[in-house]
Design brief:
alpha/beta, globular, binds 5-O-phosphono-beta-D-ribofuranosylamine
């Protein structure tokens, strides 16, 4: 059996990338990480990849914006860049760009996103703070984590692969809630990727 190949896209710290690297090294996740791509040069995730001997690529949006190019050109070029590595799965592990079809059409049912909230709740970049604010208004007593497929340009929506609930505690601050959410993310992302790579496809 051939080992599935992953391309992992990061924009920041890359703690979820690290969880994947550790799971591959320990044998919990039977996959090969072919490349880690970042849109940010300073992303610590790139250092984590280099430390693990994984090829890295930097693909910034700014030169496209400066040249007046369409966003779809950036997306198409990223798809071309990734094609060099023939990934079976593209994993968005803290990737802060929204993809257009110019990218997604190359990976139907193959782009996996991680989001620190449950389906239909708190989309976007401030999900943890939004959950805390909703808790303070008495609207929710928990938040969560989801892993889902990215079929189109909708933000943090698409067929759900896995979810896990995270309670919000009375003394929670952003940092304490974020720490518990990240710990859940690290485990859920690896568990979901293990299922996907073993079944070879997304479950219906
Ligand atoms: C995670 O909370 C992820 O759900 C969100 O961005 C964060 C990335 O964290 N999309 P890290 O870079 O993996 O540490």
């Amino acid at each position: 059996m051939t080992i599935p190949t992953l391309a992992i896209l990061v924009s920041g710290s890359g703690s979820n990338l690290q969880a994947i690297i550790d799971a591959v090294e320990s044998g919990r996740l039977k996959a090969h990480i072919a490349v880690v791509v970042s849109n940010r040069k300073a992303a610590y995730g790139l250092e984590r990849a280099e430390a693990a001997g994984i090829p890295t690529r930097y693909h910034p949006l700014k030169p496209y914006r400066d040249a007046g190019k369409e966003r779809s050109e950036y997306d198409a070029d990223l798809a071309t860049l990734l094609a060099e590595y023939s990934p079976d799965w593209v994993v968005l592990a803290g990737w802060m760009h929204i993809f257009s079809d110019a990218f997604l059409q190359h990976y139907p049912q193959r782009v996996v996103n991680l989001h620190p909230a449950l389906p239909g709740q708190f989309p976007g970049a401030h999900a943890i703070d939004d959950a805390l604010a909703a808790y303070e208004r008495g609207e929710v007593d928990h938040t969560g984590v989801m892993v889902h497929l990215v079929p189109d340009e909708r933000v943090d929506e698409g067929p759900v692969l896995a979810t896990r609930t995270v309670p919000i505690l009375p003394d929670d601050t952003h940092d304490t809630l974020a720490a518990r959410i990240h710990a859940v993310e690290h485990d859920l992302l690896v568990a979901t990727l293990s299922q996907l790579t073993e079944s070879g496809r997304a479950q219906e």
